[in-house]
Amino acid sequence: MTSNSNTEQKFKSGFISIIGRPNVGKSTFLNRVIGQKIAIMSDKPQTTRNKVQGVLTGNDSQMIFIDTPGIHKPKHKLGDFMVKSAINALREVDVILFMVNAVEGFGRGDEFIIEKLQDVKTPVFLVVNKIDEVHPDELLPLIDKYKEKLNFQAIVPISALEGNNVDTLLTTIKKQLPEGPQYYPADQVTDHPERFIISELIREKVLHLTREEVPHSIAVVIDSIKKKEGKEIVEVMATIIVERSSQKGIVIGKQGSMMKEIGQRARKDIELLLGSKVYLELWVKVQKDWRNKMSVLKDYGFNDDY
């Protein structure tokens, strides 16, 4: 009698950290892979503040992706937290995806990240994103420039937005993963509680709609989430925190028009997330210089215990 144990496919699992300069498309990639929005997207740098974990479960594997804040030179305590959070995500993972922007090319920020990667024992993949925006002839010289700096385990050009080559990247990652357990239930796509994702969806709308007028000096705190008695509707109360009174005026808008638009757009995304009708009520509060106050940062969920 022959054993077929050799042909039996073993389950593989592992943690994959996505690292790179701000605005290279890390969150777009994560949302593409997971198939729904769990990380907020904005063309403003440093949009991602906390590490967001996305879980992709297949028949024979589970990949847990960690989307980190873009590595940049910090200007305040929140910036310190973000950079520390990103660098700490290099520890105890199975694969590191170093994502770069094909359009912007090699930059000083990349030098800084490569310096951090020199001592890392984990396999590092170079992921060249936004290939849909450059001519193919420009790719090889760019890849060569990165190859001179670090010995990469694999190099995969992709377009996170269009989905080009993303499956190839996933296959390459899977080959690298060890045999392991299924850490999360098959239907779970993130380890973040719904409160966190809801606050991020609201913050995304503020960033999109206020553009340059309100920079990254905003936070969103969820005051309560509860189901209305006897109704299939979820009631969400949230406060948008800004640093200056002038920003409060911008967020509210003329006769409350901006606030209304933020609320309408956020509500649509929250309804998709919860699979339920949502009643969303927003307030705006001024908290001067909150990004430099450790006690306030902790209150807003930026815990420095990684």
Structure description:
The chain has nine helices and nine strands. By secondary structure, it is α/β, with parallel strands linked by helices. The chain has two domains: 12-176, Rossmann fold (3-Layer(aba) Sandwich); 194-299, 2-Layer Sandwich (GMP Synthetase, Chain A, domain 3). A six-stranded mixed sheet has the order 2-3-1-4-5-6, with helices on both faces. It has a three-stranded mixed sheet with strand order 7-8-9. Strand 5, helix 4 and strand 6 form a beta-alpha-beta unit. Helix 6 packs antiparallel against helix 8. The chain is globular and about 55 Å long. The N and C termini lie far apart (52 Å).
Quick overview:
The chain contains nine helices and nine strands. It has 306 residues and is α/β, with parallel strands linked by helices.
Strands side by side in the biggest sheet: 2-3-1-4-5-6
Q: Compute the separation of the termini in Å.
A: 52 Å
Q: Tally the beta strands.
A: 9
Uncertain runs with pLDDT below 50, 5 residues or more? 1-7, 41-50
Helix content: 25-40%
Question: What is the CATH architecture term of the largest domain?
Answer: 3-Layer(aba) Sandwich
The main sheet comes to: 6 strands, mixed
At CATH level 3, the topology of the largest domain is: Rossmann fold
Radius of gyration: 21 Å
Helices and strands, in N-to-C order?
Answer: EHEEHEHEHEHHEEHHEH
> In what range is the share of β-strand residues?
15-25%
The CATH class of the largest domain? Alpha Beta
Q: What's the number of domains?
A: 2
- Tell me the overall shape: globular
